Structures are given as structure tokens and as C-alpha cells.
Amino acid sequence: MDIVARGFTFDARVAGPVGGSAVLLLHGFPQHGGMWSGVVPALHAAGLRTIAPDQRGYSPGARPDGVAAYQMDECVTDALAILDALGVESAHVVGHDWGAAVGWHLAAKHAARVGTFTAISVPHPASHAQALGTDPDQKTRSAYLNLFRQPGRAEEVLLAADAARLRAMFGGLDPALVDEYVRPLREPGALTGPLNWYRAMSRRDLDGLGPSLVPTTYLWSDNDLAIGRTAAEGCAAYAVEDYEFVVVPGMSHWLPDEVPDLVNLAILDRVGAGSDAGSA
């Protein structure tokens, strides 16, 4: 369905029992709201209603020009506006990759709108930034950022040879599934908005960002190529409510695709601690 918010039109997958507690599912790069397809059936069976938008830059109707339009505050405000457009006062939030980054901001700055938070793969931004500044391993893992932040050059490299570099990011995932993620980004100009999330990154994103103020679960795989152990373990310092750190051995960055049953279990365990939230 289309969700009109802030003058944009967001493509979204809204499904599940009408009147069920809301779960806002936020994707990251280079995916879209369809990444949750293996997760949502169990959430619906548990009586939850899911909202999985294609975020700013991914929805053709929400693709503003300019790097400044992709600053974190804009992306966070989009999430709140989507909830407003659907009449949802508070929701359980689940985020992967950049979606997790948005979720950490929601859980820290807009806790009244968040029942519980489940972060997947990406830790609290302050933990990530600290590791990036002090841990040689994290610096190596994050070297790809140097390419992604180069306007034009990143698009050229990632889309060359049938988007070979973009496809390679997904490692051993099913090629048909990878194609579902990559195909929309091969449309003319479609990759620039998603990459602008990286280009808009700055230390200002941490200004006023405290710890999560809601019950929080963080899932991380010890084989994640982008996020090392220092950043993952340091995340515990940035959650003041009930916090659980779940280490998934041997998987990669793409946990909702690889182990949806485990992701479902973590979400449902966490949501059970805040079942009064998420009412529309």
C-alpha cells in the first residue's frame, strides 16, 4: 500500500490482524521492506500487525534530491510520520542495518512512541563510532564506507557488470532473492538515494543521542563482515532498560534472510515484555 507522509509517498507492506499490536519493520542497505517476508508470517500468527515501509530513497515517491535530505533526523522523522499516517500511537520497532540505526534513535529520543526495540546486526551508533575510532578490526571492516561516500563513483562501481559488486555484498544468499533486492536499485538514479544515507553521516548524528530507553534486544552474528565484536559488545553500555545481547554463531550480516525463525523468536520474546504497546 501507499503511505503518504511528510509530502512523500512511501511504498509499504502493511499486513496482519487488524487491531493487532503494531510492529514497525525498518530495512537497511541495499534491501527494501520485502526483506521481512520470512519474518512476518510468525508475527501475524502471534496476533501482531506489521508495517514494513521502503524507506527514504528506496520508495520512488520518497526520493528527494541532495545529501542533506538523508540526514538521520530526516529518516527518523519519516518513521514517526508513517506511524502517524496509520494512526499508530506506539509500535514495537525492529530494525536491520540502517533500519537498526533509525531504531536506536527512536528508542533513545522518542521512547513514548516505542514499546520495545529489536536491533539486528547494527549496534547503537555511539558504540559503532567508538569502535570505529579505536578498534583496528572495525576500521578494516568499515573501509567500504570510503567508496560508498563518493558521489557518482560508488554508483558506477556497484552497478558495473550487472551490479556484480552490489550482488557480492550478499555473500551466499539465494541469487534469486538477491536479484529481488538489486533489481530496483538498477533503475536509473535509484541507487543514489540509498547511498546518500552514507554520505549524510556525520558526528552530528550522535548529538543528543542517549541510550535506548525501552526494553531492547540486539542480535549480532560473530561472522558479520561489517560489524566486529568490539562494537557489538560495547552496545550494552547504551541500553538502560531491560537489555539482551544475542550472539548468532556462524551467520552473516543478513540474519532475517538466513535465520528468520531465530529472528522471530527474538522479536516475539522481546515483544512479550511490552505487550501493551503498539496499539493503533
Model description:
With 280 residues, the chain is an alpha/beta fold. 39% of the residues lie in helices and 18% in strands. It has helices spanning 40-45, 72-85, 98-109, 125-134, 136-141, 145-148, 153-168, 175-185, 192-199, 229-234, 255-258, 260-271; strands spanning 2-5, 8-15, 21-26, 48-53, 91-96, 114-120, 216-221, 243-248. The chain has an eight-stranded mixed sheet. Strand 7 (216-221), helix 10 (229-234) and strand 8 form a beta-alpha-beta unit. It is globular, with a radius of gyration of 17 Å. The two termini are 17 Å apart. Residues 273-280 have low confidence and may be disordered.
Rounded Rg: 17 Å
Largest sheet: 8 strands, mixed
Please state the structural category. alpha/beta
- Total strand count, please? 8
Proportion of helical residues:
25-40%
H-E string: EEEHEHEHEHHHHHHEHEHH
Q: Give the rounded overall mean pLDDT.
A: 95
Low-confidence stretches: 273-280
Strand residues, percent? 15-25%
Query: Which strand order does the major sheet show?
Result: 1-2-4-3-5-6-7-8
Termini separation comes to 17 Å
Number of helices: 12
**How does the overall form come out from the CA principal axes?**
globular
